[in-house]
Amino acid sequence: MTVTTKIGRRVRLGLGALAALTAALTIAPQPVHTGTDGTLDRSFGIGGKTLTTFGGQSVNGFSVAIQADGRIVTAGTATSAKGDADFAVARFLPNGSLDPTFGGSGKVTTDFGGREDAFSLVLQADGKIVVAGPVNQSGNTDFGLARYNTDGSLDLTFDGDGKVTTSFLTPFDVVQQIAIQPDGKIVAAGSLNRGIGTNADFALARYNTDGSLDATFGTGGTLTTDFSDPLASTFAIDFADALVLQPDGRIIVAGATSTGGIGGQDFALARYQADGSLDTSFGTNGLVVTEFEKRFAFLHSVDVYPDGRIVASGVTVLNFVSNWALARYHADGSPDASFGSHGMVIDPVLLGRANVVKAQADGTLLVAGSATPPRPASPSDFALARYLPDGTLDPSFGRDGSVLTDFARGSDAVLSIALQPDGRIVAAGGASINRQLQLAVARYDSAPRP
Description:
seven-stranded antiparallel sheet, five-stranded antiparallel sheet, 1 helix, disordered N terminus
């Protein structure tokens, strides 16, 4: 069974008054940039890009968020040559340099006692940072969350030591994304897998602000969802990769399902009420499955427009060729026929994976991931594209609607993006430099949209 994944310990405190003063001066209000949409912002890092290592370890940036003061926080995985891996969190000043007031060097790693991958990061209203991903202890993989104070130290009010693990009593429980509700509760979504040759299901958990499970959600704070047809003889392999909260409190979780058995994979979405029960007004009994022309399809990101429509991005695979794939739905889960072909877009130009999608108020879509450039025998680059409301590329963005950014002629991929209030786009991911992954961040000019 193939499971698709993204590209795949101690905290020191501040450096003193001089570092704090330097940081304060650096985060002074930044000028609004009016460069062409999609061009690299030359005021960031070196020519619009930064590369960061963690003590010689391979590191990947799976998630990025922007603080109210303009500082940029990323989370990912730092992996040693022996294969040990820890949560890796870095904070940058608005100019792209590491913030020395965070962990003493701008970087923090966290060890749960096994192998850990940090796939998702969110900022609380009080500035604390919550990071989540799978942690492997004693041969079993569980949901893992860590919360940090604004200086990078673990928040000891979060389950006593700043760290929480949750088991669904199966061998492989993998959390992919988290979100914070307006009341401060933390929703986590991922999958559980009972082992090779058995089915896998969507898995969700909700936590109170102190890290304890929220007993008002699901059963004791957790729930699972199986896309299998009870009348069919085959089971479904369901993997959740994305999560978004609607303004009305409902929860959308999305990923992929093999509802027809092991022979295929389709986009899969589920919507839940605030208490964790499936929302039967969505799709069929709360579930939606989208097939892309008999292709293998894997959904990696989901977002919601202000009008309630839902958009998802991912990849389709046919004859070993991967294309960016998008789907748009009405609020009830039905396909939006005004988008692409019957609500679906398979981009013939962008060969790679659409790892993240952001719906914008004007109806356009900002999508990012990896794509192969038109250089002979070239690996993938950072890739961003903007689509018009009908699903066609927006020619005013970059070059004919898309932008490719190469870091060092290695394999590069955007895994997360965040939008600044001035419209600029911050993209984070990984760049392969001399066969070692480095945390890669780039910032692009873009006019703010209504």
